[in-house]
Design goal:
alpha/beta; six-stranded parallel beta sheet; about 450 residues; seven-stranded mixed beta sheet; about 30% helix
């Protein structure tokens, strides 16, 4: 790994130099162990500690197959799927690996006693497999996390509909929280030249997810003038949704849980902000009953901020806790677009407010290659900015996942993999200088 890192840090190594490097037999990776699937049995979610389940192991470099690439990972990041994996909720990810392993001899490589996690990376291509022509050793890349087979016609209009669609590093092995990652070549995209490795690694999953969910015709199809209610507007997903609303001529109504998070939204340019903690919203009376009076109170507050208008779009990801309110406050004919369910998967709402007001609920999950490419292009052009707030070492990934699990983070948290320190990898200093305040917005600098 030392020679690989030296080549990357030299910044002038050629494709031939990279091709001549020896790929190591093993690498360090953040893993789950199959024999620990039941380690948190009987505990409440909040009491499950990722620091106990996530291990830093030395594992063999996987065999490179057709259409694949081995990437030296300089940096990665923690997503909610890392947290879910680490606490074995809602299911153990080894079930995903079992099913994937039955698909083909190539897929069988993923079904192992350990699972290398991570659905983001920024790094450098080391090797490409047969059939890969668009990428070569030495290319500086980021990776999106959609893994597809595309042997079925179903996925050829929207690859997210491929029956064998999976999330890399969550439903497949050899993810990005490691020194080396195995990806399909159609996961690769150019690294934004004005960003550091850790900054470039942080947008991938959440930026692409927010783009499809809010902007794409496969999601809400946001347009100029729309009012968009964004839950968790300073968080990993919400911070990108807020940026897309502002960049697209819409009005974000940002829901946050503290003054600090409200200040971040204001720094992004948002003006309509609801601090749900300060204003005391409690959408559930108890474990089984919601409080429609709180839905109505939220709707009234929204209209105060919008000059009497309801929201056209609700950007939903908390799930159970907020979904009833989301359906209620959406305008007649509006759209609730949902991905994830960080507060619970069993959503409840009053269907009268949906069907009688002709509202739509749209399910959205990550993004196809084209959507991810467009989202990354906007990052590269400085139109949308990373929301990195803090960076951990690979050995500290368990702590990083715990902080995300307990919502102690802002935006995204990064993880240095091969990169020996923060601040490396910038290739376009001029563009960086132009956008530096926005790049550092979530760091409080």
């Amino acid at each position: 790994m030392k020679e690989i890192l030296e080549a990357i840090l030299s910044e002038d190594a050629s494709p031939a130099d990279y091709a001549a490097l020896t790929v190591p037999e093993s690498y360090r990776a953040v893993t789950l162990h199959r024999d620990e699937e039941q380690m948190f049995a009987g505990l409440d979610s909040r009491d499950k500690d990722p620091r106990k389940s996530l291990h830093l192991d030395e594992v063999p470099v996987p065999e490179l197959g057709p259409g694949e690439a081995l990437v030296a990972v300089m940096a990665s990041s923690v997503n909610y799927n890392t947290v879910w994996s680490s606490i074995y909720e809602p299911v153990s990810t080894f079930g995903f690996l079992d099913r994937y392993g039955k698909l083909s001899p190539e897929a069988a490589r993923h079904n192992l006693p350990y699972h290398v996690l991570g659905s983001d990376l920024a790094g450098v291509v080391l090797r490409t497999g047969p059939g890969v022509h668009a990428w070569k050793p030495g290319d500086e890349v980021v990776a999106h996390c959609l893994s597809v087979e595309l042997e079925s016609a179903d996925g050829h209009n929207d690859t997210m509909l491929d029956p064998e669609q999976r999330i890399w590093g969550f439903e497949t092995n050899f993810g990005g929280l490691a020194e080396v990652a195995l990806v399909k070549s159609n996961q690769l995209m150019p690294k934004p030249a004005h960003l550091t490795w850790e900054e470039a690694a942080s947008p991938g999953l959440v930026n692409s997810t927010a783009y499809r969910q809010l902007v794409s015709r496969n999601g809400a199809g946001m347009k100029q003038g729309d009012n968009v209610l964004i839950w968790g507007a300073s968080g990993g997903l919400g911070s990108y949704a807020t940026q897309y609303a502002l960049a697209g001529g819409a009005t974000p109504i940002c829901v946050v849980s503290s003054d600090t998070k409200a200040d971040i939204c204001r720094a992004m340019g948002a003006e309509a902000i609801i601090d749900r903690s300060a204003e005391g919203y409690k959408f559930w009376k108890d474990e089984h009953n919601q409080d429609p009076r709180e839905w109505k109170r939220l709707g009234g507050r929204i209209r105060e901020l919008t000059g009497g208008e309801d929201v056209d779009i609700v950007f939903e990801h908390p799930g159970r806790e907020t979904f009833g309110a989301s359906v209620y406050v959406t305008r007649k004919g509006g759209t609730i677009v949902t991905c994830a369910s960080t507060s619970g998967y069993m959503h409840q709402y009053d269907n009268r407010y949906l069907w009688m007001s002709l509202k739509r609920i749209v399910g959205s999950h990550f993004a196809n290659y084209r959507e991810a490419w467009e989202a990354n292009r906007l990052i590269a052009k400085g139109k949308i900015h990373p929301t990195l707030s803090k960076t951990y070492t690979l050995a500290e990934t368990g702590q990083a996942a715990l902080d995300v699990h307990h919502n102690k983070h802002q935006g995204k948290v990064g993880v240095l993999c091969l990169a020996p320190q923060e601040g490396l990898g910038v290739r376009n200093a001029e563009l960086r200088a132009k956008h530096l305040p926005a790049i550092n917005r979530f760091r409080g600098e």
